[in-house]
Specification:
Length: 123
């Protein structure tokens, strides 16, 4: 069985507080599953970037890295930029399996959670 890590991959922003929800998600996952390795990475403006996160995980012996885009939907970055980043990572680390999930906002459980939040506000 391969050693697997997760990377929550977000856009990034100039305001450091922008990443607070992502940090909270990482902390919640770590609290519920401390044996699971989870890291964050950003496309731009913030560190670490995806390559730096992956390099650290590969250095720690991870053989499978699952990248979870923390985007509400699949737009230009996920359709164009991320495949290029993954191609580069696969070339640099052919021994590592990289899996890319759908944008988190497209997952049915997240859609339903957002709907429940909206309904609670209307309430």
């Amino acid at each position: 069985m391969s050693k697997t890590a997760l990377v929550l991959f977000a856009h990034g922003a100039r305001d450091p507080e922008w990443a607070s929800p992502l940090r909270r998600v990482c902390a919640a996952v770590r609290a519920k599953s401390p044996e699971l390795r989870i890291e964050s990475a950003f496309l731009e403006f913030m560190t670490p970037n995806l390559r730096d996160s992956v390099e650290a995980l590969v250095g720690d012996g991870f053989e499978r890295i699952v990248i979870l885009p923390m985007f509400i939907a699949q737009g230009g970055h996920l359709k164009h930029d991320v495949p290029l980043l993954l191609e580069e990572l696969r070339t640099l680390h052919p021994q590592v399996r990289f899996d890319l999930t759908c944008a988190v906002g497209e997952a049915e459980s997240i859609v339903q959670a957002m709907a429940a939040h909206v309904l609670a506000l209307a309430g």
